[in-house]
Amino acid sequence: xxxxxxxxxxxxxxxxxxxxxxxxxxxxxxxxxxxxxxxxxxxxxxxxxxxxxxxxxxxxxxxxxxxxxxxxxxxxxxxxxxxxxxxxxxxxxxxxxxxxxxxxxxxxxxxxxxxxxxxxxxxxxxxxxxxxxxxxxxxxxxxxxxxxxxxxxxxxxxxxxxxxxxxxxxxxxxxxxxxxxxxxxxxxxxxxxxxxxxxxxxxxxxxxxxxxxxxxxxxxxxxxxxxxxxxxxxxxxxxxxxxxxxxxxxxxxxxxxxxxxxxxxxxx
Length: 268
What we know:
Helices cover 12% and strands 45% of the residues. The longest helix is centred in the first third of the chain and has 23 residues, at 10-32. It is mainly beta. Residues 3-15, 22-41 and 256-268 have low confidence and may be disordered.
């Protein structure tokens, strides 16, 4: 039987709490700084024939807020350089704990849409767009079994005729034995381009940017997640669909992010 959250105390819990407090401060510090927006000097320009994606909303799966209610969706408006979710204080904004609901696959998701302008091989261009994610995972072990808590960044573009997806690891905690093992994630990741083959004109293509979790015994906490945008207009122009140049190589996969791990701490 899994131990309740309030029974998971001692140095391990205090350590992850301190780390979460530090990561939660980062969005607040960005908000106080004169320069709030993540900007790239070499952001590629729009070309004739490009089809910009339109922001289409957000979704939440399995995450709860600090009162145990379903975590609310994003407003869809840029605030402090981000379109997405941001905690107003030092506490996590969205939480999934297996004590309350058992193993789960929680997610926070932002969506964009576009009508495919012409058939053929296309590239979904992120145009040096960045996504920010702050939070932590914690696997809670037992004397028997293997337990994990994982957070990933997923970028997926799909239409009935074509699909492209890439997954970037954020943090992973695994444990075998009666310990807690936490790991934190904090910072910005530049999003990759996606290669789409055989798309059909007139179909609706949807792009999903997700902070996805997987946990069979433990906890996932999110202080903030979203796409970098100084305004709603920037968020609307973050992604474009462009016909593939036959002579151009397909987009390269991004280098994996390096999660920050913490040594396991026994229960008190």
